[in-house]
Known about the structure:
mainly alpha; 7 helices; elongated
Amino acid sequence: MKKANAKNKSVPSAQTNTDCERYPQWHNLVSGAVAGAGARLVSAPFDLLKIRLQLQGKNIAPKYAGNIFQSFSKIVQDEGPTALFKGNVAATYLWIGYAAIQFGLYTRVSSILNGIAESAQSAMSHDMPEYVSSPTISTGLYHDVSVSSNSSLFASILASNPSLIAFISGATAGVCATFLTYPFGK
């Protein structure tokens, strides 16, 4: 009995699927969209200033000289406060789409990987040989996933490393969001 308890303590428990699904999936999309719009709203003046500084080059008498606050005040004096947000609409749409996709996919991928890790933990806690058990996990998608003996090594690695789950989920979400929203950035 001590051997089984020691084995269970060495494997940290993965986040359960129910922790990720306390609310509907569309909440993640809306949260991502709001976060993307907020991020773009805050960063728009800095992006505008960056572009203007790049365009002015090394003129003899640069229009935007000094620190960042002097440059912002020069823009507001010359063109008004709304000038800080010129050209922001298209970029806002890009960031809304990007963040919504990223938030939604991160949660979904994380939920699937946590289910795989949980099935590996339950198989390990029963002390069954790998070839005997083929646990099935519910992903909440169109079908359930069966963890075969070929993927049991991957599942046991996931079960012992929650940071890997976060890394894979984030990388997958970021790559997919970039791929799906890249055409809007040009």
